[in-house]
Amino acid sequence: MAMVFISYRDKDAKSESKVIFNIIKSYIGDIAFRDHAIPPGSSYINVLKENLRDAKLLLAIISNNWVNAGANNPDENRLLNEGDWVRKEISTAYSRNIPVVAVLLDGADLPDQLPEDIEQLRDSQQLRIYDSDSLHDDGSDEVKKLNRIVSELTRDNQVNTPSDPLTGKIQDTKYSPAMILLKPGKFMMGSNESEEDRDENEGPRHLVSIDCYFYIGIYPVKNREWKEYLKDCPNVTSTYTEPAECLRGDHKPVVNVTWNDANNYVEWLSQKTRKKYRLLTESEWEYAARAARSAGSKSGLLPYYSGTSINRTVACFNGKGFSIGGVPSGDKAETTAVVGKHLPANGFGLYDMHGNVWEWVQDAYHCDYEGAPDNGASWGNAGEQKNKYGILRGGSWRCRPGFLRSACRHKQLTSVYGDDIGFRVARDVK
Predict the structure, then answer these.
(1) What sign does the CA torsion over 63, 66, 70, 73 have?
(2) Contact predicate 134/142, CB 8 Å
């Protein structure tokens, strides 16, 4: 059963309650209930009672029509009816010592007249959302306050709690990769024929819809996190060997990993955390690299998140002697870079999507996008493919700038490893 019970009137705040439900689910976890989730054929009353029984918090969503929405007479105060379900939900919460928070939308206030069994609603904590449209803005103060309240009042019971409920960042264990939540969106995958350094395997360009929220590593997996895996799995079958000294820093990306090594790591992490970790699909990776949620976004059509060119101030790569669009790319990287320290994040808050290390993705390699899925799903599994070819994305510290493009795809045997090959993890929300 859910820990957060969302109480609302269907004809008063149905859409707002849905938005609030999705905010909680996305940023804190699948811990909320609203009556849209009642399965067909189930007893409406019994399901409500069961979820109220197990709730740790009730959110009363109150708009300006809360008292009389759905009434036959517009002057009727439905709360004065002992059989009113909203009243029953709130009074039941109080009778069971469940905290109640009044979420007041668009300047709404509590009515002058409240029945005795819910009178204490006046003294309960209130969250005022002066403009309900602000609930659609991830960075709004209202969304932050909502997440803070829900997190604080359910903290001891959460099974899927982000370390920072205000930003959606999570870290399931001390040595797990720090992650951030990505929202669904649409983008154009691949490149146009006119794009500089383009390869034929990047076409045809096509629309992809990422339909589900997912968590993604803010950085490539770091040596520190990889060492924890090796320590916990001393007998794991792997070709991994320690790289040169200059590549070993705890906060540098792990290298010398094959596709199988990367998959063994996410399987181990899933077992340790009881969460579903995996490699990104190829389309998820490109969506994250482009950092634009709209297919019509101009920035999402550019070769790099930095624009039409890239240089050494924003990525770790070999820029010496190269230029993009006539713009010099800078000097040559001599080793990998410490993640998140010197180079900026892209528009989604992700580091090193361009350069530093190549990153394995889940998909099997195909020579072009004819027949590719358009919903963000993996197109086959590289480990199950007969010839065992996988895909590397993002370029590396050894690469010239053209390999860093968001659309660039590098075919590679899954058994191959090198001092510029690493990976990044994803995690399902549920």
Answers:
(1) negative
(2) yes
Instruction: Report the candidate in 213, 361, 390, 210 with the shortest Cα–Cα distance to residue 294.
Output: 210
Of the chain, the end-to-end C-alpha distance in Å amounts to 14
Using N-to-C axis directions, what is the helix angle for 141-154 and 10-27, rounded to 10°? 70
Which residues face 6 on adjacent strands? 59
**Nearest C-alpha neighbor of 213 from the set 188, 179, 190:** 179
Place of tokens 């993640």: 339
Q: Which two tokens stand for residue 251?
A: 């906060």
Say what the pLDDT of residue 383 is.
Answer: 80
Confirm if 384 and 399 have CB atoms less than 8 A apart. Answer: no
Which of 23-37, 127-141, 257-271, 327-341 comes out lowest in average pLDDT?
Answer: 23-37
Q: What are the residue ranges of helices labelled H in 55-140? A: 85-95
pTM of the shown model: 0.64
Query: In this structure, which amino acid lies at residue 321?
Result: G
* Per-residue pLDDT tens over the stretch 281-330: 999 999 999 998 777 677 778 999 888 999 999 999 999 999 887 788 88
Q: Are 125 and 102 in contact (CB under 8 A)?
A: yes
Residue of 101, 105, 121 whose CA lies nearest to 58: 101
Closest by CA position to 289, among listed 187, 370, 171? 187
As a whole number of angstroms, the distance between CA 50 and CA 88 comes to 14
Give burial (CB, 10 Å; 0-12/13-18/19+) of 373: middle
Sheet bearing 57-62, strands edge to edge: 32-33, 4-7, 57-62, 100-105, 125-129
**Does the N-terminal peptide bond of residue 162 adopt cis geometry, omega within 30 degrees of 0?**
no
Partners of 207 in beta bridges: 188
- Residue 372: what pLDDT? 96
How many whole angstroms separate alpha carbon 324 and alpha carbon 327? 5
- Of 153, 207, 156, 150, whose CA–CA distance to 26 is shortest? 150
